[in-house]
Fold this sequence. Notes:
Blueprint: E1 5-8, H1 16-24, E2 34-38, H2 43-51, E3 54-60, E4 66-72
Parallel strand pairs: 1-2
Antiparallel strand pairs: 2-4, 3-4
Amino acid sequence: MSAPLVIDARGLLPPEPMERVLEALPALEPGRVLELLLPREPFPLYALLHERGFAWSTTLLPDGTYVIAIRRA
């Protein structure tokens, strides 16, 4: 299994985090995970991921960072 592709978007303003994720999705190989780091939960992104055939899990870290692990469904 290859290392996750990480997008650290904690310092970016909307809509740049979503744009970066949507740009990265087509190149995401099956079995590879894209990890998105954000200071808030990206509810609008979830519907877009679902529409494009991706699954995700969300984890809230103790420091308040949300880690959204995205993979092909």
